[in-house]
């Protein structure tokens, strides 16, 4: 009885969009199928998921690293298959739509605001055919899985940044990085990385055109529309959010954000912003994958939500976060901002999604 009540509660909380009353039975079957993996499956914010979609976990879940995470108002179409192996994670960002008959396997990250057309295939895995050429391929796969030196050949994550459009019938092989704002044409075979805002087609993929010339400055202003592409990941970029943010002279940031800036050697990072829904904020700042500082913004010490910080860039004292940026971004400086902790301000508008916003960031 407790089991049935929890399933009913999930439905009433809109964890699944029920397209009609006739599909209620199908949706219940889908919920029951996934119940045993509930700690590995986050569906609490999904806008809609078709009852015919398949979400598949390995038979024996031996690690908490095995997860499927669907972001706020993400959409999963008919007959979509999301499948992870042990230790894999599939992440689908906020407002991203995956349309009918797509297959996504293994370690795959798809950023927010993306559109995947029908029949897209993405896999972080690959079969082994040349380790022992006379062996069965299946036996080579089994051997490689149990030898760490072949780990990358067996599984190499796919990373698709925000605001990408992946066309009908696209195939994306293991280890591929697709930059922010990229467009991949129908039936494209993606075998090498895609730069930000590139439009690509063909077998293998090649550049046809560009949405824009990706050339970030060493000074970015949140109110400059031309600067928005360089607020690269982890910002609220729907037009309605940008409009509200402009009233505060900021662009709203999420839990972890990434800004791409002009390459070169700089000594100082200056960041200006505003607290939105919190009175206390603890941030970690990394520069090209190295932690350069942690800052605390405490409104109780100063009755002002605006803040300005200047940080010395000294990577010799930093700590490596062990995340390798793709070669496509090597020429640029990358600034990551992560919220470590915060205290909500009860006197402010509780409907605001963001804790803070950035108004300007500069390299000096």
What does this structure look like?
The chain is mainly β and 364 residues long. 12% of the residues lie in helices and 35% in strands. It is built from 5 helices and 29 strands. It has helices at 2-12, 24-34, 137-145, 151-154, 239-247; strands at residues 41-42, 48-49, 54-56, 67-70, 75-76, 81-83, 89-92, 97-98, 103-105, 108-110, 115-116, 121-123, 158-160, 165-166, 171-172, 177-178, 183-184, 189-190, 198-201, 206-210, 219-221, 233-235, 251-261, 268-275, 278-287, 290-298, 306-312, 333-344, 356-363. Strands 21, 22, 23, 24, 25, 26, 27, 28 and 29 form a 9-stranded antiparallel sheet that branches. An 8-stranded mixed sheet has the order 2-5-8-11-14-17-19-20, with no helix packed on it. It is globular, with a radius of gyration of 22 Å. The protein starts with a helix and ends with a strand.
What Rg do the Cα atoms give? 22 Å
Task: Give the oligomeric state.
Answer: single chain
End-to-end CA span:
63 Å
Helix/strand structural class:
mainly beta
* Mean pLDDT figure: 85
Q: State the shape.
A: globular
Percentage beta strand: 25-35%
Q: What proportion of the residues is helical, as a percent range?
A: 10-25%
Instruction: Work out the helix count.
Output: 5
Major beta sheet, specifics? 9 strands, antiparallel
Number of strands: 29
Model regions low in confidence, pLDDT < 50 over at least 5 residues: 3-36
């Amino acid at each position: 009885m407790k089991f049935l009540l929890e399933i009913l509660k999930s439905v009433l909380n809109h964890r699944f969009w029920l397209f009609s009353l006739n599909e209620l039975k199908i949706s219940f079957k889908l919920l029951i199928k996934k119940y045993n993996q509930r700690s590995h499956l986050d569906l609490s914010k999904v806008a809609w998921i078709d009852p015919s979609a398949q979400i598949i976990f390995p038979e024996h879940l031996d690690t908490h690293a095995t997860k499927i995470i669907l972001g706020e108002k993400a959409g999963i179409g008919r007959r979509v298959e999301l499948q992870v192996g042990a230790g894999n994670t599939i992440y689908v960002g906020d407002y991203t739509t995956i349309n009918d008959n797509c297959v996504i396997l293994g370690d795959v990250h798809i950023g927010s605001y993306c559109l995947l057309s029908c029949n897209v295939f993405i896999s972080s895995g690959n079969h082994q055919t040349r380790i022992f050429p006379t062996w069965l391929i299946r036996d080579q796969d089994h051997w490689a899985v149990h030898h760490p030196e072949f780990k990358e050949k067996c599984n190499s994550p796919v990373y698709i940044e925000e605001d990408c459009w992946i066309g009908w019938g696209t195939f994306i092989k293991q280890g591929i990085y697709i930059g922010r704002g990229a467009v991949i044409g129908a039936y494209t075979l993606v075998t090498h990385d895609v730069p930000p805002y590139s439009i690509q087609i063909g077998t293998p993929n090649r550049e046809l055109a560009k949405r824009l010339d990706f050339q970030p400055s060493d000074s970015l202003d949140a109110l400059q529309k031309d600067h928005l592409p360089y607020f690269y990941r982890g910002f609220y970029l729907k037009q309605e959010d940008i409009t509200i943010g402009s009233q505060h002279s900021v662009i709203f940031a999420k839990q972890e954000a990434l800004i791409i800036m002009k390459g070169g050697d700089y000594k100082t990072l200056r960041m200006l912003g505003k607290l939105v829904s919190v009175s206390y904020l603890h941030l970690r700042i990394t520069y090209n994958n190295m932690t350069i500082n942690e800052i605390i913004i405490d409104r109780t010490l100063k009755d002002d939500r605006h803040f300005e910080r200047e940080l010395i860039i000294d990577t010799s004292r930093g700590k490596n976060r062990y995340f390798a940026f793709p070669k496509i971004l090597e020429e640029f400086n990358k600034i990551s901002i992560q919220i470590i902790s915060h205290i909500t301000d009860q006197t402010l508008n509780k409907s605001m999604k963001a804790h803070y916003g950035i108004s300007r960031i500069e390299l000096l």
